[in-house]
Amino acid sequence: MADGVFFKKLREFLVTGFFIGYIPFFPGLFGTLMGAGIYVLLSQYAFVYYPATALLLIISFPLSDFAEKHIFKETNSPHIVIDEIVGFLIAMASFPFIASWGGPVDSITLSSVKFLVIGIVLFRIFDSWKPFPIKRVLNIGGGAGIVLDDVIAAIYTNIMLQFLRIFDYQFHF
Q1: In this model, does residue 169 exceed pLDDT 60?
Q2: Which of 9, 17, 47, 112 has a Cα-to-Cα distance from 90 of 20 to 30 A?
Q3: In terms of Cα–Cα distance, which of 124, 112, 129 is closest to 157?
Q4: Can you give the pLDDT at residue 154?
Q5: Would the pTM count as exceeding 0.85?
């Protein structure tokens, strides 16, 4: 019996993004910020970033489904933030965060920060607004609906970031 309780708590720990999903306001934003932190730490190491993102994506489906049915017992609970974490990691694919922390801030660091901030804003807009077909994907239900809506928001975000990168020399703020 103790093993069952341990694994249930482990699933809860993972699906809530180390329990940040319990923050009573804007848990989706905090999940995105958790994803941003992981992105900043790992994105320079593609050999770690991409497999970790793929693994997190794969486990997010059954974890979200389990949490919806057995932990929170409500459809698409706001406490489930693993979808925001993995969604943000997908959104930032091909945008390594490169920063020089020791000396003067260079243009590569500024560009990394710029794309990080724009990525967070765009991902939250697409995840909240839910343009076509995101609303329809939610109707799938279960872990698939929970995760896939964020995956599509991530794809939209990445497309917009790719567009901005193409025109980066004309795009300054």
Answers
A1: no
A2: 9
A3: 124
A4: 98
A5: yes
